[in-house]
């Protein structure tokens, strides 16, 4: 499979489609699919969701419980809670209005399925809002911290 790579400050490999198994790959930032790659301790990690999963809760206490559970399980490096936010949405044949709290989880793409499953299992909503946002840029240090905190 060919990947589209964008050269970083330390990479002396060519920008283009790279199939090489050499170390230069670990010094590049992968730009295909909006993913960012980085090297740490000889291993190459890719994070395609960094402000990653967004979940909405009806109660602040429940949002904090799920945020804490995701971080304690090392699924997410961090979880931030915003709210209350007012949501206006269509549900069961009528427009609904509720105050809700958003939880933003920071995690690697490799942990997303696990986070989604955990949220669905503990959520009070029949159809919880769980979405992921691709990042297009991020500091290598911050993305490295996300990878290390979730291993």
TrEMBL record:
Entry's family note: Belongs to the CutA family.
One GO BP annotation of this record: response to metal ion
Example GO molecular function: copper ion binding
Name of the protein this chain belongs to: Divalent-cation tolerance protein CutA
Matching PANTHER family: DIVALENT CATION TOLERANCE CUTA-RELATED, FI09726P
Domain of life: Bacteria
Gene3D superfamilies with a match to the protein in the record: 3.30.70.120
InterPro entries for the chain: Ion_tolerance_CutA (IPR004323), N-reg_PII-like_a/b (IPR011322), N-reg_PII/ATP_PRibTrfase_C (IPR015867)
């Amino acid at each position: 499979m060919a990947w589209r790579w964008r050269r970083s400050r330390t990479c002396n490999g060519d920008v283009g489609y790279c199939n090489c198994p050499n170390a230069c790959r670990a010094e590049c930032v992968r730009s295909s699919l909006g993913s960012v790659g980085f090297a740490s301790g000889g291993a190459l990690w890719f994070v395609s969701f960094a402000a990653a999963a967004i979940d909405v809760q009806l109660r602040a206490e429940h949002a904090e419980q799920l945020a804490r559970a995701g971080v304690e399980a090392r699924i997410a490096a961090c979880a931030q809670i915003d709210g209350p936010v007012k949501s206006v949405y269509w549900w069961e044949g009528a427009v609904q209005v509720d105050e809700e709290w958003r939880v933003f989880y920071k995690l690697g793409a490799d942990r997303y399925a696990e986070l989604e499953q955990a949220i669905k299992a503990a959520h009070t909503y029949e159809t919880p809002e769980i979405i992921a946002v691709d990042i297009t840029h991020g500091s290598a240090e911050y993305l490295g911290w996300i990878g290390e905190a979730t291993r």
